[in-house]
Amino acid sequence: MSNANEYKPSLARGLWALTYRELKKWLKDPVMLAMFVLQPLIWMGLLGKSMNIGGLFSANNLNLPSQIPIPGNVILSPPKLPLVVLNGTALAQMFAQMGSKVMENTFGITDYFSFMSVGMISMIVTTTTMFSGMSIVWDRRLGFLDKVISTPVSRAAIIFAKILNATLRAMFQATIILALAYLLGLQLSPTFTLLNLLGVYAAIFLLGVGLSSIFIAFSIRSTRMERPMQFISLITMPLMFASNTFFPTKLMPDWMQVIANVNPLTYLTDAIRQLTILPLDFSALIWDFTYLGFFAAVLSTIGIVLSWRYLTR
Amino acid sequence: MTEEVIRAENLTKVYNRSLVAVDHINFSVREGEIFGFLGPNGAGKTTTIGMLTTVLKPTEGTALVLGYDIVKQDSEVRKIIGVVPQEYTADEDLTGYENIMLCADLYGIPRDVAKKRALELLELVELADFKDKKVETYSGGMRRRLELAIGLINRPKVLFLDEPTLGLDVQTRAATWDYIRRLKKEYGMTIFMTTHYLEEADTLCDRIAIIDHGKIVVTGSPSELKDSIGGDIITIAIKENADVTNIIKSVENVKEVRNENNIYRIKAKLGEVTTPLIIEALRKNGYTVTRLSLTEPTLDEVYLEYTGRAIRDTEESKEAFRAQRITLRRARA
Question: Which of B200, B151, B141, B148 has its CA nearest to residue B172?
Fold first, then answer.
């Protein structure tokens, strides 16, 4: 018979085996995978293209006649001018120029679609990590979790595998959205290099670790999928709107800015924007990463402690 | 000398500070035997397995598995045991082979050893032809066999089986019993199992502990238990509506009489001889026997004797059982 010490259950091997299982489940399901790609495509294609804020300020939208006659009595200085005729086309162009200044001051770039599609990345990253964390409810209901905890694999590996799976999925999706957005007309900033993508992944990783660990802790105790699902749909929209995902926070009312400024989504979105579409502002980027790092550290500590306590009940 | 493989000392589990699922139980399992926990649903069988397999922490007391303490040396215990839980725990989206290999990774079994062993085990449970099919396509019996194979990947010295044939049809059940016997023979494993099927306990187990309301009522081999009742069981019904307990008791060899709604369960030595005497005595007193049966004791009787009710009474419909299991699952959370 075998010797008990023949096997060396290692954290790394257990972690990889459990993560690999999740990824395999995911990649083996073409319908799920297609949905994952379709969802952001639909959001970006429809919402991003329909909310054509840049179009508001275009010369065409003003629709001026080429000649605009103005009666002399409207003009006070210099006095007693006869009929004045303005060049409509030039005026419209002036309007468009002012418009793109407004856009640039508001969004940092003139193209709203680029602004918004990065926001879309944060949104998808958030929902994906939350849902992936929640899959532990199934593992528990179907008995798989019981099986795993009866093996000598490290309890940490069980939790980390979930977190890793959630973040890897989120990164994968972010890549797809970015690629799709580029095809649909996202304008990269001149400071963008492929190396910046690593920064994008790092930012997603930090948010993913924080969010998923707290969701794992939350759902590991719940025996039904409904409650966590309800919770996700309850908080996703507010998280999105009270952040810079679709609109810059500086134009929001004060109370909302307070929320947006603690909302990690704001920092993730800004970090990705800095790295992709905006001319890179290094100090802003560092601040974004500091906040995300802090968020990840605090939430994952709480999450892991709570899940750990559950697993070793 | 036979070695003690499992030894439970005052093992206790209380859920939510009020529901006592297992109540200070003591027992020991010897090397190489199949030890069965027999009892109705909710008696505390699964909770006991949970504690012995270190998935649940005992509220009080502890147990030693091959000398390792389940509370203090839980990770050592996990390495040397195999667990086949009541539920199907394999991942449905993976193939049978992938499921076994996943478990091998969790045990840290070297890959080449694991591969060879996985194929061997799949062969043993006759799933070799289905190893690359997703588990969701498996039938109930196949899943059960796969669970067995998964539980054996680390060559455990002790195997824990929780209701190994729950919900299986008669044929699959008999086949599963064969696998379990083969495991015992081929690997010399000690097996701890729970069941609420009397027949299963009778044919499969070397020794049985009857558990009821979280307490062990009696322990022994099936034949010991049957003998412990001390004789045959005579069941008699009479036409008249009267209590004839005392008349029956006066007959020679009658050891005990129990009146259950005018059906008398009589325990007696030498049933074949005693039965005519009882009929005679009743007739003399003017009573007419309408029904009669004579049985040698089965585990049914043993169970009835020690718990005061038939195990069949406690078997509920499938729905009620499922509802109860969900409730228990929540309580365990």
Answer: B141
